[in-house]
Amino acid sequence: MSAGVSRHPRAVLLGAQAAWAGLPACDHYAGVEARMRKSLALQAEWSARHGTCLFDVTLDCEDGAPVGGEAEHAALVAALVQSLDWSATVPPRVAVRVHPVDHPAFAGDIATIVGAVGARLTHVMLPKVESVADVERASSALDAAGAPQLPLHALIESPAAVQQAFDIAAHPRVQSLSFGLMDFVSAHGGAIPASAMTLHGQFEHPLVRRAKLEIASAAHAHGKVPSHCVVTEFRDRDAVRLAAQRAAREFGYTRMWSIHPDQIESIVQAMAPQAAEVERAADIIERALAADWAPIAYAGQLHDRASYRYYWQVLERAHATAQPLPASVQPLFV
Fold first, then answer.
1. pLDDT digits (tens, 9 = 90+) for 134-145
2. What is the model's pLDDT at position 207?
3. pLDDT tens-digit map of 194-232
4. Other CB atoms closer than 10 Å to residue 334's CB: what's the count?
5. pLDDT average, residue stretch 57-76
6. How far apart are alpha carbons 173 and 83 in whole angstroms?
7. CB atoms within 10 A of CB 305
8. How many beta carbons lie within 10 A of that of residue 289, not counting itself?
9. SS (H, E, C) the chain
10. Of the four listed, 4, 71, 105, 290, which is most buried by Cβ atoms within 10 Å?
11. What average pLDDT is seen over the chain?
């Protein structure tokens, strides 16, 4: 199958990649030195094995730095990023979660880390985002540190921030919105029970469900990536897989946080499309391409560019999660 640039799905199907934006399905967090090093080594190992980077590693300053040791922790993060093998066939994907914009350590995090290795980072995760003003303040800090192109990921953690989610997602610097479950529950002063932070409770409590849906909707409205919150039952792989499946299939999330290496594979697998769906998508895209993207009939159903866009996104997700692709569509990913 031959596909020139003008006929390639990415060129023909407007908005076909908005839901992924090139981000891996898993964002893995580590803040203690030993765990940061282990996570970076694991990423390199997986990338060499699969030929693509299946998860980001976000080095955590907000929860990782000891009180009073924020400057030393930022210096450690910068040194770890500098020490990575940037000549690898699959380069590292590493980010940093800095302190909130109103924290005394925020400016130091940006100056020390972004000022030294900003060109190496995939993004900066900004916690406790309450408004567009917080995003603007962080953007100005990144610009001053010499990283005007570095994306921001915004962590929504309060009911007030949920109300501002659409405006935050609309900011051109924001690439992804994440939901901070535990802080969101705590922000309600006991009005939401602790059970809402558990595996099942977080999908059932009405206020938490509403927040998740608002954030996902805001992200998709502006072509950004919605990233689902953590699962604290971190050693229960079935629990993690179930949460990731529900986040993807019921709430529209295309990315999810990991807080333990055992969670990564479960998240990636759960976010990946099923083999039968990949086969169907490949058949439809192959026939659409042969028809020069005109409408086709497939299994008794009519398909046109609206459904082609969906099935192309299925193939993009399969490729991003290292799922086997049928030979007929492999040339589209060369």
1. 999 999 999 999
2. 98
3. 999 998 899 999 999 999 999 999 999 999 999 999 988
4. 5
5. 98
6. 27
7. 16
8. 20
9. CCCCHHHCHHHHCCCCCCCCCCCCCEEEEECCHHHHHHHHHHHHHHHHHHCCCCEEEEEECCCCCCCCCHHHHHHHHHHHHHCCCCCCCCCCCEEEECCCCCCCCHHHHHHHHHHHHHHHCCCEEECCCCCHHHHHHHHHHHHHCCCCCCCEEEEECCHHHHHCHHHHHHCCCEEEEEECHHHHHHCCCCCCCHHHHCCCHHHHCHHHHHHHHHHHHHHHHCCCEEEECCCCCCCCHHHHHHHHHHHHHHHCCCEEEECCHHHHHHHHHHHCCCHHHHHHHHHHHHHHHHCCCCCEEECCEEECHHHHHHHHHHHHHHHHCCCCCCCCCHHHHC
10. 105
11. 94
**225-228 and 255-258 as β-strands: parallel, antiparallel, unpaired?**
parallel
User: Which pairs from 260-264 meet CB under 8 Å and 24+ separation?
Assistant: 260/234, 260/235, 261/28, 261/38, 261/39, 261/42, 262/234, 262/235, 262/237, 263/26, 263/28, 263/231, 263/234, 263/237, 264/26, 264/28, 264/42, 264/54, 264/55
Which amino acid would we find at residue 4?
G
Structural domains in the chain?
5-13+274-333 (no CATH), 26-271 (3.20.20.60)
Can you give the pTM of this predicted structure? 0.91
Looking up tokens 């939401």 gives: 192
Greatest C-alpha distance within the chain: 66
**Separation between Cα atoms, residue 164 and residue 179, nearest integer Å:** 13
